[in-house]
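Follow-up to my earlier ticket, as requested here are the two runs.
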Amino acid sequence: MPDLFNVRKIYLMDYPVVRTVSVSGVTKPQANEALIDQINQGTLILNFIGHGNDELWTHEQVLYAPTDFHRIQNQRRLPLWVAATCEFAYWDQPDKQSFAERIQNAAERGAIAMVASSRVAFSYDNASFNYQLFDILFNPYVAGGKILRIGDAVMIAKNNTYNDYNSEKYAVLGDPALRLGAPTSRAKIERITPDSLQALRRVRVSGYIEKDAGVWNDFNGKLLLRVVDAKRQRIYETSAGLKVYYVLPGNSVFRGVTEINNGRFNMEFIVPKDISYGGEDGRLSLYFWNDASEGTGHYEKLPVGGTAVNLIDHDGPEIAIKFGQEDFASGDFTKPDPLLNVEISDSLSGVNIAGDIGHQISMVLDDDQAAAKDMTQFFEYHSGSFTSGVLKYQLTGLTQGLHTLQIKAWDNSNNSSMVETVFQVVADSVLTVRNLLNYPNPMTAHTQFSFELSNEARVTLKIFSVAGRLLKKFEPMLATVGFNQISESWDGRDEDGDLLANGVYLYRLEAVRENAKVEKIGKVVIAR
């Protein structure tokens, strides 16, 4: 892949083996989770080399059609899938669809196109075709032109591969005239101060958007900066004593967004303690955009090592857990597949996203510590900030009822904090109102009504006398899951605008959703 692109490598040997009685052989569920998470986050290309068949990648069941097809929810972030394996695109079976066909035909998700074998193929020749394909696909782009059309790249790669019998088994599912979307505009880095990544040092990056060999002076938009540690050398020793040497990209150092004004940008970040302390190939990658244009940039060969003047910070980061709504409180309702929002901040050191073992941002559901999930990759700093940001993640597969969720995070000085919350999952068909109250109560001049909902609904609040006579009706409003307030406070007046006398009054909240309707009644006291 050209250096402009960020590459994530998922090697099975980096993940632990799990043996269960329900599966023959071994599985690697953490590798499977890492792959599906990345697909759902979005990627330009998903490339696989290894053993497979028409419904499965690897004996360890990484990407298995019966259990994983429905979990691929990348919406319209559709990559090109390349599967250098056996039978994945076995498209001419009359009795069933291959996994590749299902992925390609999935509505609003899956793949923009698929390049894969339709029959048994062989590993060495698969790898040869795979290397040819990527060289040919991107050569024009590296030279400043467009990425080659997928069909042309596959045709040339087949012709350049010596084993015609193997390469002719590969097919394109999708539009062969398609070109992958890769921007051609470039961002340039002018200055990195200081010029190396030292632990706990504040680093400033400045640069510009290039046009006609100069600054694009009228470009205004946003820029995403990713800073990565030096590459990591790995050695894997097989059971037979053979050693396999491979290289992984470095850990993340920073990931955040800033504004571009008149073609120029400036950004700061704090380097974590968890760096490699060695290496000359730290990396900065840039992606910028506005409504009309987009582009990329990168800088390689950034030295990594050393420690700045000691930063005195003994407190962990602040953590706030929410589920979509701003006013989430522990014990609130959520939908079956809620969007988790976790705000994390540390005003002195910033948030550690290096992801080193023991220092990840981790999530534990229902006290299952053995199934703790590394959430580091889902955190991103707020625009213009290097001390606070948000982690967003779509939870799936939750059962109805009460759940606990625990988040642990670290700052760049390696201080940790942990927060736990409780939430209640309810089905879309269930409508419940709880915690209906008004404050203050008794009231004098004004009072505010609040309540919690298990699902979105249209609500109406009415106030009655104790004899049941309607005195006041508030405008209906659309309420969301969780905590809500009636949009206007009540001043103790009836529909005619007359002040009501001191005393006890009843109020009724009615919530309606499709075929569901619930009511809740409360009391308010006026005491002027």
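Run two:
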Amino acid sequence: NAKSVSLGEQVAIFLYMSMTGLTMRQVGECFQRSNDTISQYFHKMLDIFLA
């Protein structure tokens, strides 16, 4: 459930995806989250870091 993604996990998803270059699908498998959840929080963190 996307509502249960902690801030720490959101940052971890962003950093892991940024550093490894893996696809959202691969990162989703790693974190046991859906592609939609990975995409949502990756883009949320990207917006925050670019602000």
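The only thing I checked on run two: Residues 2-50 form one domain. Let me know what else you need.
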